[in-house]
Specification:
- With 162 residues, the chain is an all-alpha fold.
- It has a domain of 108 residues.
- 80% of the residues lie in helices and 0% in strands.
- It contains seven helices and no strands.
- The protein is elongated and about 55 Å long.
Length: 162
């Protein structure tokens, strides 16, 4: 299972890195999202070779694989933010929220939100807090992705399912 989780985590990590490097370039971001969604197929097809019987067993294994992928991706995110980002991520978010047009839309959609306070809070986030947030988010995504992965991992048509 760990090998499948590793390969699936590679998909997640490549997706994250492409998305991180493509901030402001929508086409590249879409490519990153597609690679991330490919993790469902990568995990499911590899799990299919294990001939897992029953929905419960397939979902459990799919969940374990996706959670391993989430942990690997969180580690890659830590490496990225610690050694490679150099503040680009926060600066991109800061620029987005500082844009008068975006700021007006945000304040209109969320009337009680003070964009300046959000930006100030964003600048105070420590790396450990950011990574814990990513770990929680990645874990939730893993739970969601395990459901379609379970269906991709169904046994071949010739075998009986219990």
């Amino acid at each position: 299972m760990s090998k499948i989780g590793f390969y699936t985590g590679i998909c997640w990590s490549i997706s994250f890195l492409i998305t991180a490097y493509s901030l402001g370039k929508p086409g590249m971001g879409l490519a990153g999202e597609i690679i991330g969604l490919m993790s469902i197929w990568v995990a499911g097809m590899q799990l299919r070779t294990h001939n897992l019987q029953g929905i419960r067993q397939r979902w459990h294994r799919s969940l374990m694989v996706q959670l391993l992928a989430a942990v690997l991706c969180t580690f890659v995110q830590y490496i990225y933010f610690r050694y490679m980002d150099g503040g680009t991520f926060v600066q991109t978010i800061f620029d987005f929220y500082s844009n008068p047009e975006n700021k007006a839309v945000i304040e209109q959609q969320y009337p009680g939100v003070n964009v300046q306070e959000v930006l100030k809070a964003l600048c105070t986030i420590e790396l450990s807090q950011l990574i814990m947030s990513f770990l929680i988010m990645n874990s939730l995504i893993a739970v969601l992705l395990s459901i379609p992965t379970m269906f991709v991992a169904r046994p071949r048509s010739g075998s009986k399912e219990q």
